[in-house]
Amino acid sequence: QSLTGNQGALGWSHPCLSREGRGVLQPSPLPPHIPPTAPRKAASGNHPQDEGLSPRHVPNQPLQCPQGPPIPNQPLRCPQSPPPPLDVPAGAPPPAAAPPRPKRAAWDLKGQVSDLREALGSCREKVRGLDEENRLLREQVGTLQRDLRERESQEKDLNHRMGVTFSPPNGVSFCPTPQPELLFPLLNPPSSPPPPQAQLKLAEETLQQHAARAAELQVEVAAQEQQLGQQEERLHGLEMERRRLHNLVQELKGNIRVFCRVRPVLPEEEERQKGLEHLHFPPQDNKVLVLSRPEESHVGRERRGDIRYDFSFDRVFPPSASQQEIFEEIALLVQSALDGYHVCIFAYGQTGSGKTYTMEGPDALDPETRGMIPRAVQQVFQGARELTEKGWEYGFTASFLEIYNESLRDLLAGRPERGAELEIRRVSSISEELHVPNLRCVPVTSEEEVLGLLQTAAANRSVARTALNDRSSRSHCVFQLRIQGSNPARDLRCASVLSLVDLAGSERLDKSLSRGERLRETQAINTSLSTLGLVIMALSNKEPHVPYRNSKLTYLLQNSLGGSAKMLMFVNISPLEENFAESLNSLRFASKVNECVVGTAHANRK
């Protein structure tokens, strides 16, 4: 009965209680957590049935577990700790399994009981070991729980102290997101610093690496500087070649050029002028202008045909030509002023032919209609900025004056100073350069400054009403931009003057119906214009005497009209047929100028 009471805990089956009822006590398979017992040694004695019996075992007594009765429906677990793993060399074959215990005979009940007792003793030893291990683990858990409670208390205290210490003041807030680069040194404090000898060695190695890198960079910098010097030398050579070729092109075009421009018919003139039958622009040639009128007999006043007058110029612009289209033809000439050549551009024509519109435009700020003066100034400053990258430095001085009745007036001076008499003088007794003392010369650094001066000059210019124009310019207006250039690296300097002139209207006295003061103005204007033609003819014929001093206009422009300058003349023509005679006179004068050939221009360089 004792054996049957423990058979569930030990995993054994009693032969009498088994369903088979074979009458033999057979062990059932051990649970997987109970290792098989080692083979029993032979016991001393005369009876083999006494093998493996414990000396403390009392026959016919039930097997009792010292830890208490077995738990129903639970296998008996031995408290013995598993043996430590054996050190097996790498590559060694696995240990051979223990040979199985030989099966006892069915009649050897004593041996079977001995085996059971031996297994029971082993399980008891394991239970005692597990109980001891469980006690130690419980003590360790208690210790860890106490430590955890202490750590939690410390954490709460530290959090409270940190919140009080690092509370942000009013108006200040902490960054809501952590900064890894700032938290890393706090969470990972550096280890103890290396000894001074190691630090010194590391610093020396770093210094050597930096010195080697610096030497490499110095070599690279020297190579780059050498290459840069070669490129600058090549760039300078190309710039000088450009100037030479540019000047060659201008000389091939002629140092005196004449452009003819016919203004469009104004809206208020459309009733008087129905078309342009008397003006012809050959489509295949933009350098020819033809004037024609019917020829009538002196007796019968009969029309006998058309009389044609053909004129050829460097360029002819029809009424449809825009300001930009015209400026593109003179842009290269303006560039010559930056290269050190004196340049003079002036507009000639009768009153109301569009001279002021061509030179100044109705509005200097309007990009579509502004005249040649604002456009030329813009190009000069733009070209100077580009040449600055090539080592050139430029300074500019602007002046604006008018010649009225053979008197010079400063258009940039105030009202009290406008009455002061100005005279033309030589810079020195040995110099051919001319200047006007007491003339206001304003240093300028931008296009906007020059445009402001143009507006001031336009308000001060002398105008009057004539029979040909309600607002006729009664004076020659001369704008001069003096350019001083230098290249310190090459020890080069250049100086030039860009003169842009809006001449007074040329008309016959009987046509303008001038009287009194207007008559004297017209006479002075026509005299100066005639002198201009004589000077150009004298230069063309290489005459020893050129009458510059016969007029204040030619005397002032002496340096810009001579052989060392480049000159361009606009002849402006009215489209009205009623001005046919004045247009014919203007074209004849311009044609004579166009036939003139002056000497080669020379740059003012040092």
What is the structure about, briefly put?
The protein is an alpha+beta fold and 606 residues long.
Integer count of domains: 2
CATH topology of the largest domain: Kinesin
Q: For the record, what is the CATH homologous superfamily label of the largest domain?
A: Kinesin motor domain
Main β-sheet: number of strands, strand sense, barrel status?
9 strands, mixed
Question: Tell me, what's the shape?
Answer: elongated
Residue ranges: pLDDT <50 for 5 or more in a row? Answer: 1-81, 83-88, 464-472
State the distance separating the first and last CA atoms: 138 Å
Q: Oligomeric status of the shown chains?
A: single chain
> Beta-strand level of the residues, as a percent range?
15-25%
Tell me the helix content.
25-40%
InterPro entries: Kinesin-like_fam, Kinesin_motor_CS, Kinesin_motor_dom, Kinesin_motor_dom_sf, P-loop_NTPase
Keywords: ATP-binding, Coiled coil, Cytoplasm, Cytoskeleton, Microtubule, Motor protein, Nucleotide-binding
Protein name: Kinesin-like protein
Region (Disordered): 1-108
Overview of the structural elements:
One of its GO terms (molecular function) is ATP binding. This is Kinesin-like protein. Keywords: ATP-binding, Coiled coil, Cytoplasm, Cytoskeleton, Microtubule, Motor protein, Nucleotide-binding. Pfam families: Kinesin (PF00225). With about 600 residues, this protein is an alpha+beta fold. It has helices at about 1-10, 110-165, 180-185, 195-255, 325-340, 355-360, 370-390, 415-420, 445-460, 510, 515-540, 550-555, 560, 580-595, and strands spanning about 10-15, 25, 255-260, 280, 290-295, 305-310, 315, 340-350, 395-405, 405-410, 425, 435, 440-445, 465, 470-475, 475-485, 490-500, 565-575. The strands form 5 sheets. Strands 3, 7, 8, 9, 10, 13, 16, 17 and 18 form a 9-stranded mixed sheet that branches. The chain has a 3-stranded antiparallel sheet with strand order 4-5-6, with helices on one face. It has a two-stranded antiparallel sheet with strand order 1-2. It is elongated and about 170 Å long. Mean pLDDT is about 75; it is low at about 1-80, about 85-90 and about 465-470.
